[in-house]
Design a protein that fits this description.
Distance between the termini: 42 Å
Radius of gyration: 18 Å
Number of helices: 18
Largest sheet: none
Shape: globular
Strand content: under 5%
Length: about 350
């Protein structure tokens, strides 16, 4: 692989998250079989008139990035800043919000501190937003784990949520620390994932199965089948993260194939797409993401330009280890945008009620 600059790689993480989110959003909750009938042909933006928009997966990644800029030296202050971002996010009437995340934000509004606001859930929320933490602290494992834990506890207290989030962060950190010039050996990759949940038997059994799938050369949908997800990837973090990790390794250095192989599985496509998009973007950088997928996202005020600016400022913070001001944008426009987004999602939902089935 050609050399990828740290700035381009950082952009790849944030833009890769957005592309996976936007491409997967129209197919969220649809079975693998129905996706093939409803959306034939190559993957492209289909939310509205050939364009894509961003959902909570990307929005939470923005909040994490902004909190990291302000507080790269204190996981506690980072968590407080992220908590206020989530409070404001809920007030702006987002079209989609996970049950666990919604309950946790309500607890934040009631006055629970960030380390006690999370609810017992192993949903995907912590994994979908954690990639910027992995890359910013790629050279400092202790700090990386402290920030991953702070971000996770804010909404999810189930230990499995922390293990899943840790796995995504560790893969992204590996990309930045090593330069990701070649795929890791299968055995090394398995060791990296095992270390994320040494204390959890279920996680170890999942990684055992992944090791066997790597040896057998299974496709990504075939691997998903071994986890009981023939109809689609579920919202359980112990299903989504392993499938995303397997696709990342199976198609290392090929953003398009890694992402589409996960989307082809159906189910929670926007979140699964966002997670594998971030990890694959950490390898290839912005230049390795298909341009038509980036250009096809039409969103504001949290659009692709904002993601690039956050990525560039995070690159500077990673080099100087000095805090920076978060990137400004016209936040009053979020409510108007969310009302439009809700209308688009409802229209798209009605369309999905129609044939072909």
């Amino acid at each position: 692989m050609k050399n990828v600059s740290q700035q381009d790689r950082m952009r790849g993480v944030l833009l890769g998250t957005a592309v996976g989110d936007a491409l997967g959003l129209p197919a969220e909750g649809i079975s693998r079989r129905r996706i093939g009938r409803l959306f034939p042909g190559p993957w492209r933006h289909r939310l509205l008139l050939g364009r894509g928009m961003l959902s909570d997966d990307t929005e939470h990644t923005v909040f994490v990035g902004q909190a990291l800029l302000a507080h790269p030296d204190s996981p506690e202050r980072f968590a407080r800043r992220l908590g206020w971002s989530l409070r404001g996010w809920l007030l702006a009437l987002p079209a989609g919000i996970g049950l666990a995340t919604g309950r946790a934000i309500f607890r934040l509004w009631l006055g629970f501190p960030p380390h006690k606001s999370g609810v017992f859930s192993a949903g995907n929320g912590p994994a979908m937003r954690v990639a910027p933490i992995g890359v910013l602290f790629s050279a400092d494992k202790e700090k990386r784990q402290a920030y991953v834990a702070a971000s996770t506890r804010l909404t999810h207290s189930d230990p499995r949520a922390l293990i899943g989030a840790r796995a995504v962060a560790e893969v992204c950190a590996w990309c930045f620390e090593t330069g990701a010039q070649a795929a890791p050996a299968g055995a090394d990759f398995i060791r990296l994932l095992r270390a994320c949940g040494k204390e959890d038997r279920e996680w170890q059994e999942i990684i055992d199965g992944m090791a066997g799938a790597i040896d057998e050369g299974l496709s990504v949908p075939q691997y998903a089948d071994t986890l009981g997800m023939e109809r689609g990837v579920s919202g359980y973090i112990y299903r989504t993260v392993p499938v995303a990790c397997y696709a990342w390794l199976r198609y290392f250095g090929d953003y398009e194939r890694a992402l589409t192989s996960v989307l082809d599985c159906g189910g929670d496509t926007d979140t699964a797409g966002a997670i594998v998009g971030a990890m694959a973007g950490a390898v290839v950088g912005e230049a390795g993401i298909p341009g038509q997928w980036i250009d096809g996202i039409a969103d504001w005020p949290r659009g692709m330009g904002l993601l690039r600016r956050i990525a560039d400022r995070l690159t500077s913070v990673s080099q100087t280890q000095q805090a920076s001001s978060p990137v400004g944008y016209f936040w009053p426009g979020v409510l108007v945008r969310n009302l439009l987004f809700l209308a688009v999602v409802l229209l798209h939902g009605f369309r999905r009620l129609l044939p072909p089935y």
